[in-house]
């Protein structure tokens, strides 16, 4: 049944790779974007928040484009929509801003026409558009996921995050696009480096699944992408080496960066020391950055309450300070 009154969707941010799991491991984070979509006589956009600056307000907008992909796949024509969006997720920082927009737009469009497409179908479509399943899978399903993509279909297994797992992200002020971060990667790697990453990615999945915090640090080591991207993020090499000695269970570049991510035991008494070390190290390399303490988001994309007289921004204000 169509939802003529419109729909609202809440979508978490995500981090990808977690070190060795290049394009395969993802985790949803407690940083969110909200999308409202309604049928309309004329397409229009209402974009709120600092993260929305510079986002197009015409049919080139990513939300509109992914919504149309859903409508076409479902065999339904909805040429004109009214879209509202507010996001806490900083753009091009390695926290899955594009993935959350893709999942938010697709989930809202699907719900708007009665949800004819399954989540698995949405996952395939989103992965095809994004090119890898880790961020979109985490934003869609929540928690931690390990996923594969064969070019047509994505499969995944979800991992429930340990209740004491906390995430510290340090977000530099500069932006770094995924395409730029991929340009520095080599076309070929040695068998030794391949085995190095496979073994650690496998160990990391097992450690996260079983709550073995003692193994996370060793398991988050990487030779496929982080050594090559280190030149793009001043201070990163020092942080990867030293942060585990300052209270981090493990540390990695978040996605393509430039955000750095530390997994932390929330019971650890060195949390503030770790935060200060990370920010001071970035500052010593001439980089201004902000720190956020987040949790893994156990829920993925969620359809909010029925749209009614409670305005979009009033609904948002009930959950965050804007």
Overview of this structure, please?
This protein has 322 residues and is an alpha+beta fold. It is globular. 35% of the residues lie in helices and 23% in strands. It has two domains: 7-160 and 297-317, Ribosomal Protein S5, domain 2 (2-Layer Sandwich), CATH 3.30.230.10; 165-294, Alpha-Beta Plaits (2-Layer Sandwich), CATH 3.30.70.
Looking at this protein, list some descriptive labels:
322 residues, alpha+beta, Ribosomal Protein S5, domain 2, Alpha-Beta Plaits, 4-stranded antiparallel sheet
CATH architecture of the largest domain: 2-Layer Sandwich
The helix tally amounts to 11
- What is the terminal-to-terminal distance? 33 Å
Rg, rounded, reads 20 Å
- Give the percentage of residues in beta strands: 15-25%
- Count of folded domains: 2
Helix-strand sequence: EEEHEHHHEEEHHHHHEEHEEH
Based on Cα principal axes, name the global outline: globular
| Named CATH topology of the largest domain | Ribosomal Protein S5, domain 2
> Oligomeric form of this entry?
single chain
Mean pLDDT: 93
Number of DSSP strands? 11
Give the proportion of residues in helices.
Answer: 25-40%
Overall CATH class of the largest domain? Alpha Beta
Major sheet: size, sense and barrel closure?
A: 7 strands, mixed
User: Which segments are poorly predicted (pLDDT under 50) over 5 or more consecutive residues?
Assistant: none
Structure classification: alpha+beta
Secondary-structure map with pairings?
Layout: E1 7-16, E2 25-39, E3 44-48, H1 62-74, E4 81-87, H2 97-112, H3 119-130, H4 134-141, E5 144-149, E6 154-159, E7 165-172, H5 178-183, H6 191-210, H7 213-219, H8 226-229, H9 236-242, E8 250-253, E9 260-265, H10 271-284, E10 289-294, E11 302-303, H11 312-317
Parallel strand pairs: 3-4
Antiparallel strand pairs: 1-2, 1-11, 2-4, 2-5, 5-6, 7-9, 7-10, 8-9
